[in-house]
Amino acid sequence: MASRSAGIVTGLTTAALVTIGVLAHQASDSVPAGLDRTHATTSPAPGAAKAPRDRRHPEALPAMSGQGERVVYSVDDDRVWLVGPGNRVRRTFEVTPSTVDPAPGAYTVTSRSNRITGSDGIPVEHVVRFTGAQGVAIGFSAAVDGSTAAPDPDRPTGGIRESRADGDAMWKFATIGRQVVVVP
Fold first, then answer.
1. Residue 118, domain member (yes or no)
2. Cα–Cα distance between 144 and 123 in angstroms, integer?
3. Cα-Cα-Cα-Cα dihedral sign, residues 151, 102, 64, 44
4. Could you tell me the pTM of the whole model?
5. Is there a single domain that holds both residue 94 and residue 33?
6. For residue 12, what is the DSSP state?
7. Cα 134 to Cα 62, 103, 149, 183, distances in angstroms
8. Based on the domain organization, do 85 and 16 belong to the same domain?
9. CA-CA distance, 104 to 181, in Å (whole number)?
10. Whole-angstrom Cα distance, residue 98 to residue 112?
11. I want to staple 144 with a disulfide (CB 3.0 to 4.6 A). Which of 34, 123, 150, 164 is the partner?
């Protein structure tokens, strides 16, 4: 009788393991494309093409970019949205990316500087920092001379460059604690 009970338990255990294996396989097949991949934290190779989400409406706020007042930054589109109450876009503009991209996710503005020298040696104003990667602080800034030239691809920099007018708007909007959402 004891060996019969042991056989039943072994059979049930085997059946349970098979069921778990089947369910695990089904679950892994249902993971949406891209969720199982890690995001590179560096910019694409110089000259790599970047396609906007919607070629007819490149200024449209990306879906799944959060709710409430926030800054949204699209790494792939090199575009920023300042989103106010009611999920209304107050301003959107293109930026020149740094050589180090922040990973997609939600951050908050952690520090600000009115005028400093950027990690690339260029005097900048209205610096709004929200994260760091590869040993550099990442944030938005405007060059005092108004330039938005692409940074040296061989030097890690974290300054996402805006025009001076866009930098002024960011400075007024993105105070300490303001949410910054980074999307691919």
1. yes
2. 6
3. positive
4. 0.70
5. no
6. H
7. 26, 11, 21, 19
8. no
9. 7
10. 17
11. 123
Q: Which is more confidently placed, 98 or 27?
A: 98
More confident residue, 38 or 91: 91
Q: Taking Cα atoms as reference points, which of 86, 129, 85, 125 lies closest to residue 107?
A: 129
Residue 146 DSSP SS3: coil
CA separation, residue 137 to residues 48, 100, 149, 160 (Å): 24, 9, 19, 10
Same domain (yes/no): 29, 78: no
Residue 119 gets which letter from DSSP?
T
pLDDT over 70 (residue 9):
no
Same domain, 15 and 106: no
The pLDDT of residue 133 is 94
Q: How sure is the predictor about 38, in pLDDT bands with cuts at 50, 70 and 90?
A: very low
Over 60: is that where the pLDDT of 52 sits?
Answer: no
Name the domain count of the chain: 2
Q: Tokens 């952690």 label which residue?
A: 110
Range of the domain at 175: 70-183
Pairing of strands 111-117, 123-133: antiparallel
Same domain (yes/no): 93, 171: yes
